[in-house]
Design a protein that fits this description.
Strand order of the largest sheet: 2-4-5-8-9-10-11-12
Oligomer: single chain
CATH class of the largest domain: Alpha Beta
Number of helices: 12
CATH superfamily of the largest domain: Glycosidases
Distance between the termini: 65 Å
CATH topology of the largest domain: TIM Barrel
CATH architecture of the largest domain: Alpha-Beta Barrel
Helix content: 10-25%
């Protein structure tokens, strides 16, 4: 890529400071780094940490395996994981001729493989006038149906959308914001707003405030995508080589400040920042770094992509969630692109698993429709269903040992993760009696258990407690908010996803 030519528009340090945008010297282009063994700061703090070993036979001479559990083959619909059915993208919501919008969206929501929903809308779709949210029909339908079918929603609000003929900005804002010509792309002249303009910054912060006030920690919200620079909010205006700022330092300061404001307002709900390489020189590497340090998550919008993004996704800290978005085939012959007997979409899905995601998109790019997703699935079910049963974290208690220590009974439990991803937060585990008189609880270290490894934890019980009949229950804690977790084991669970402990036939006699 050729060096960019800078646009001279006269921004000053004083004007940036007035907006709350830091003017301390930053690199005009923060370089990417290897994520493997990179220092992202301290590990997330864990309250009520369970003792996790080592466990010596000399210290626990009375140990005995009393229960052994096996993996589930069912789809597990826990928070922080799953296939995401896309209801709306850059060109609008799902709509089939002869159906109402509500009917088309409900057909998508009902697809069993998808345990989450996703909408991507324009700014004007959620706000028409200053000071209040005014939500479009497909936004409201999606949330109504999410509640009915018990599926949470992820979303993004776009400040730039090159796939529509007019502006994604609300009308009350358009005449206030300078627009900068970047060049020609796909037979159209492309413009981007001066994101650092005071009127834009004030309106942006109000939008973040309105959305966070309504949806931060909302029971129906899974996550929110970080609002980033440029096309679709992904952090770029590729293939155009310029950006609308007077220089790269202004660009970087602007978007670092905008990220900081979002992290301050979204205190409970995770934000997902795109791992887009910094083609447009707007500070993306710094945004990704700060996203991880603030215990937020990552996303990418394809899988056959730059090695820089693969590095970031596959070597992220274990407690960092990841969503991978790739459009899949609608099952039509021209969309299959079969190579050596493997469809393009199946090839995509295998590579998605290679980066250990928590989420993956069920999405017909720009042609969203339930019938199209189901058409592909009916012809090629195996790989999609395998992904649905492997994606994210799938935690089960694998070994349960009983012991006695100084007259007190206890359990040591070996937890296993049969999914492809680590736990995107902290797993909190409790042992409770039916009458709640016994309630022993604590947390594993953040991210654990890791896939392919066993994480053991000790539960010391009150004197005289019988372990049989106790309920073993889990929650995932993300940004201070807890969500119930269903164990991913074949053995029967209670309605709340907990497991009642009992003796497994034969395990203590081998």
């Amino acid at each position: 890529m050729q060096r960019r030519s800078f646009l001279k528009t006269g921004v000053t340090a004083g004007s940036l400071a007035a907006l709350g945008i830091g003017t301390e010297p930053l690199l005009a282009h923060v370089p990417p780094h290897n994520f493997d063994r990179y220092d992202f700061g301290s590990v997330p703090a864990v309250s009520e940490r369970l003792y996790q070993g080592p466990f010596s036979a000399d210290d626990y001479p009375s140990w005995n395996v009393v229960m052994a559990l096996t993996p589930s083959r069912e789809i597990v619909a826990n928070y922080g994981m799953g296939l995401i059915t896309y209801v709306c993208d850059e060109v609008g919501p799902a709509k089939k001729e002869g159906e109402t919008l509500a009917e088309s969206i409900e057909k998508l929501v009902k697809i069993p493989l998808g345990t989450k929903l996703y909408i991507r809308v324009n700014w004007k779709d959620v706000q028409r006038q200053a000071g209040k949210l005014e939500l479009c029909e497909h936004w409201e339908l999606t949330f109504d149906l999410a509640r009915r079918y018990q599926k949470r929603v992820g979303f993004r609000v776009m400040m730039s959308n090159p796939d529509i003929p007019d502006s994604p900005l609300p009308e009350f804002l358009r005449d206030k914001i300078p627009m900068v010509k970047l060049g020609e792309w796909q037979k159209r002249t492309r413009y981007e707003p001066r994101y650092d303009d005071p009127a834009f910054q004030a309106a942006f912060r109000e939008l973040v405030d309105l959305l966070a006030d309504a949806y931060d920690g909302h029971a129906d919200v899974e996550y929110v995508d970080t609002f980033m620079y440029g096309f679709w909010g992904e952090g770029h205006t590729w293939p155009l080589e310029s950006n609308p700022f007077p220089d790269n330092v202004t660009a970087e300061n602007t978007f670092v400040s905008m990220l900081q404001y979002q992290t301050e307002r979204w205190k409970k709900t995770p934000m997902l920042t795109n791992t887009q390489p910094d083609f447009s020189k707007v500070g993306n590497s710094e945004l990704v770094d700060r996203t991880i340090r603030s215990l937020n998550w990552l996303r990418t919008d394809t899988i056959f992509i730059e090695n820089e993004q693969i590095e970031a996704l596959s070597n992220r800290p274990p407690w960092t969630g990841v969503s991978v978005e790739v459009g899949i085939s609608d099952g039509s012959p021209q969309s299959l692109r079969i190579d050596d007997g493997v469809t393009y979409s199946d090839n995509v899905i295998h590579h998605v698993q290679d980066v250990a995601p928590c989420y993956f998109s069920l999405w017909n790019w720009h042609r969203i429709q339930a019938d199209r997703l189901l058409n592909y699935h009916s012809q090629f079910p195996d790989v999609l269903e395998e992904l649905a049963r492997r994606i994210g974290y799938r935690v089960r208690p694998s070994w349960v040992w009983s012991y006695e220590e100084g007259g007190y009974p206890g359990l040591i439990i070996g937890f296993v993760n049969d999914g492809v991803a680590a736990v995107p937060g902290t797993l909190r585990i409790s042992l409770q009696s039916e009458d709640r008189k016994v309630n022993v609880a604590g947390c594993l270290d953040a991210g654990y258990p890791l896939p392919g490894k066993v994480r053991q934890a000790k539960f010391a019980l009150p004197r005289g407690t019988k372990w049989k009949g106790l309920r073993l229950q889990a929650e995932i804690e993300v940004k201070g908010k807890r969500y119930p977790v269903n164990w991913a084991c074949r053995q029967k669970l209670n309605e709340d996803g907990s497991l009642t402990l009992r003796t497994t036939n034969g395990v203590g006699n081998v």
